[in-house]
Design brief:
eleven-stranded parallel beta sheet; single chain; globular; mainly beta; 19-stranded parallel beta sheet; Pectate Lyase C-like
């Protein structure tokens, strides 16, 4: 017994010593020095590429390798990243936490906490991965989140590296849609981690990153303000469940630009409490499209306003531009513009669904989140003939109002028969002739409009 215990200690010491040797032996001096070249802090949009800016040559760098990270994809580098973060966070001047290329860093569920004394650039050059699936996830760690940035002001996350969520084993849990026996969904624990979450933070820039295969949402922003998202590549399989590309909730003054998103759920989803959101030049699909909602679940109150989606492409997706609300909710969606969007074989290019429900057992309810002042302009392309090109399914008690269409041309991807648009309790106008024509709009305004005491923000 004593011999076996001694042997175990020797093995542990040997493994620790090997990881220590890897810290030095695998450090390529040329690559390391190249990574230490000065990079930029990103300004407010629209901004030039990081390489075009000239930050201070004296800005400090905090290389995670210098804090003990191994980068072999096996050793746990969590503590090295946290130590590097804490050191950078307490620095008197803005610096860069450097994740060097040529390495794979395995990090467990971690919260990077602020506020910091100055701004931080989190530069990803290498690859960052989590533990490999639910069985490898530490028991005492949250299975709802992976990398969390909390109470940060003035952070830039950028680089040409990769964040790989290793989500396949999570997607295959029997509690996921149609993953159980005989294609059923089975009860049981179903928490899956969001890859990157920003919470209660402001003045954020996320730029140039590649992220793939998140177990659930790839990016989530909660209770944040002044956010710039630019030049992201987000990719996961079309059938990966709940893998929204970018989700925002209770977040305002958001700009999402120049990104390519292909995933198993919404490319961009906009939740309750969001306003002043500008989405431009997004290539989306295969996916579930760009969505406002779902809103009003469990009889909750939700307000969303001042949303613009423009100059974008949506292809091979279940939906194009969508507003979805549950019956029984309260609040409003208002001042929304969808313009200059190309649809390529999209099943529901334009859809408002105030009867959103994930099962066949949702009961009818009399209240609803109101939808008003929604504009669709210069939306062209093709649609999947299994559904009409436009669907406006509005509440019996809270109709959609002030819907406007102009220069909408949607043709069937196969055949020549135009599917007739569907309307239910939808009040709107066509400023130009649309293809197919929308003859089902109701004129004017409903006899009695619901009163909402929310102030619509300009």
């Amino acid at each position: 017994m004593i011999f076996m215990l001694s042997l175990t200690r020797i093995c542990l010491i040997s493994i620790t010593f090997l990881c220590f040797l890897q810290l030095h032996a695998r450090l390529d001096k040329h690559t390391y020095e190249k990574q230490l070249l000065p990079i930029s802090l990103i300004s407010l949009p629209p901004s030039p590429s990081p390489e075009a800016l000239s930050p201070s040559a004296n800005a400090p760098f905090f290389n995670v390798k210098s804090f003990g990270a191994v980068g072999d994809g096996v050793c746990d580098d969590t503590q090295a990243f946290k130590l590097a973060w804490d050191t950078a966070c307490q620095a008197e001047e803005s610096g860069t936490l450097l994740v060097p290329n040529g390495y794979i860093f395995m990090i467990q569920s971690t919260i990077f906490t602020g506020p910091c004394k100055s701004g931080i650039t989190f530069k990803v050059g290498g690859t960052i991965v989590p533990p490999d699936g639910p069985d490898s996830w530490p028991r005492n760690s949250s299975k709802r989140q992976w990398l969390v940035f909390y109470r940060i002001n003035g952070m830039s996350m950028q680089g040409n590296g990769l964040i790989d969520g290793r989500g396949e084993k999570w997607w295959n849990l029997p509690c996921k849609p149609h993953k159980g026996n005989d294609g059923t969904t089975l009860p049981g624990p179903c928490d899956s981690p969001v890859a990157i979450r920003f919470f209660m933070s402001s003045n954020l820039t996320v730029q140039g990153l590649k992220i793939k295969n998140s177990a659930q949402f790839h990016f989530r922003f909660d209770n944040c303000q002044n956010v710039l998202i630019d030049r992201l590549i987000i990719k996961s399989p079309a059938l990966s469940p709940n893998t929204d590309g970018i989700h925002i909730e209770n977040t305002n003054n958001v700009n999402i630009y120049n990104s390519v998103i292909s995933n198993g759920d919404d490319c961009v989803s906009i939740g309750a409490g969001c306003y002043n959101v500008n989405i431009r030049n997004i290539t989306c699909g295969p996916s579930h499209g760009i969505s406002i909602g779902s809103l009003g679940s469990h009889n909750s109150r939700a307000c969303v306003s001042n949303i613009t989606v423009t100059e974008s492409v949506i292809k091979h997706s279940d939906n194009g531009v969508r507003i979805k609300t549950w019956q029984g909710g309260e609040g409003s969606v208002s001042k929304v513009t969808f313009s200059n969007i190309h649809m390529d074989i999209v099943r529901n290019p334009i859809i408002i669904d105030q009867y959103y429900c994930l099962s066949k057992n949702c009961i009818n309810q009399s209240t609803a989140v109101s939808v008003s002042h929604v504009t669709y302009s210069n939306i062209k392309g093709t649609y999947d003939v299994r559904s009409p090109a436009m669907r406006f399914a509005c509440s019996d008690s809270v109709p959609c109002t002030n819907l406007t269409l102009s220069e909408v041309e949607l043709l069937p991807a196969q055949g020549y028969i135009l599917a007739t648009p569907f309307c239910w309790n939808a009040y709107g106008t066509m400023h130009t002739l649309t293809i197919p024509p929308v003859l089902c709009f109701l004129d004017g305004n409903p006899p009695m409009l619901p009163q909402d005491d929310d102030v619509i923000r300009d």
